[in-house]
Amino acid sequence: MLQRIKEKILKEPENFQMNYFTQFNTPCGTTACIAGWAVLLDAKDQGFEITKDWYQSLKSNVEQLASGLLGLDYSEETEEGKINSDTVFYVTDWPDDFKWRYKSATSQEKRAHIAAKYIDYLCSL
Question: Which residue has the higher pLDDT, 72 or 6?
Answer without folding.
Answer: 6
